[in-house]
Automatic annotation (TrEMBL):
<comment type="similarity">
    <text>Belongs to the pyrimidine 5'-nucleotidase family.</text>
</comment>
<keyword id="KW-0963">Cytoplasm</keyword>
<keyword id="KW-0378">Hydrolase</keyword>
<keyword id="KW-0479">Metal-binding</keyword>
<dbReference type="GO" id="GO:0000287">
    <property type="term" value="F:magnesium ion binding"/>
</dbReference>
<dbReference type="GO" id="GO:0000166">
    <property type="term" value="F:nucleotide binding"/>
</dbReference>
<keyword id="KW-0460">Magnesium</keyword>
<dbReference type="GO" id="GO:0005737">
    <property type="term" value="C:cytoplasm"/>
</dbReference>
<dbReference type="InterPro" id="IPR006434">
    <property type="entry name" value="Pyrimidine_nucleotidase_eu"/>
</dbReference>
<keyword id="KW-0547">Nucleotide-binding</keyword>
<keyword id="KW-0546">Nucleotide metabolism</keyword>
<dbReference type="GO" id="GO:0009117">
    <property type="term" value="P:nucleotide metabolic process"/>
</dbReference>
<dbReference type="InterPro" id="IPR023214">
    <property type="entry name" value="HAD_sf"/>
</dbReference>
<comment type="function">
    <text>Specifically hydrolyzes 7-methylguanosine monophosphate (m(7)GMP) to 7-methylguanosine and inorganic phosphate. The specific activity for m(7)GMP may protect cells against undesired salvage of m(7)GMP and its incorporation into nucleic acids. Also has weak activity for CMP. UMP and purine nucleotides are poor substrates.</text>
</comment>
<dbReference type="GO" id="GO:0008253">
    <property type="term" value="F:5'-nucleotidase activity"/>
</dbReference>
<dbReference type="InterPro" id="IPR036412">
    <property type="entry name" value="HAD-like_sf"/>
</dbReference>
<protein>
    <recommendedName>
        <fullName>5'-nucleotidase</fullName>
        <ecNumber>3.1.3.5</ecNumber>
    </recommendedName>
</protein>
Amino acid sequence: MVYHIPWIYTPVRTVLAIWHQLTKTEMPELAKCSVLMRERSRVEETIHAMQRAGAGSLQVISDFDMTLTRFAHNGKRVPTTHNILDNRLLINEDCTRKMRELLNTYYPIEIDASRSAEEKLPLMVEWWTKVHELLIEQKIRRDMLAHAVKESSAMLRDGYKVFFECLAEHQVPLLIFSAGVGDVLEEVIRQNHVFHPNIHIISNYMDFDQTGVLQAFKGQLIHTFNKREGALSHAAGLRELQGRPNVVLMGDSLGDLTMADGVSEPQNVLTIGFLNDQVEERKESYINSFDVVLVKDETLDVPNAILRYITSSRDE
């Protein structure tokens, strides 16, 4: 369950004046036409509450693929961590063909607004399990992963350096929940020179044998619609997250909304959703679910503006 602070009665003129100040002066990014909000006043109240509490009470929880990474660039899709493995250094043409067939079958199901999460869940397990089985068959070598990432067109969203460095500077934990491949995810962050000590990753990690060949995937399978289980089982064990009841949550799927369920006694949770494609079909459900919806926005400008506002006043 995602918590928000309760509405506190404030005269309408005061709310409008504060909001005008936020959008026009301190956070003009929130006034962009690509930014949608169901309840602007609640977003404003939540941001103000987080600012009053300061950076020491904040943590950020984010998805990775198509959230911290771009969805597209120059009209072409940017590869996810699974797509990066589609490299002749790692897998053969038959495996590539089968993985694309699985993508064409299951991705439309994942983003289908007419299907419930409960209906999608077993199909997502089926998809991820089949992909992992294909990858294991390829006997991928660990020492080739960095080359595959370097040769790929993987891209973090514009403004990523500001995002990662702001969180590191203010010692705000960044918990990345990803249904992708953790080993590849880490390499993408590392090659962009933003892998700071405040980053914690929960993802699907490869298990290599003594010769460095992929033999299995470790632990519980993480997919788009079971992140709540991962949140409950992992987040509580991270000491760095204790005593940080304010959360900025970022994702590109409705399934990402459960990533904050592991937070102990949350006070203020602000959810930011990236609506990357099938906008008209999914716009209503995103506006009804996320506090802030960013439509076809390939930047981190809005999260950066919010984080800058929260961290700037109380750390001085």
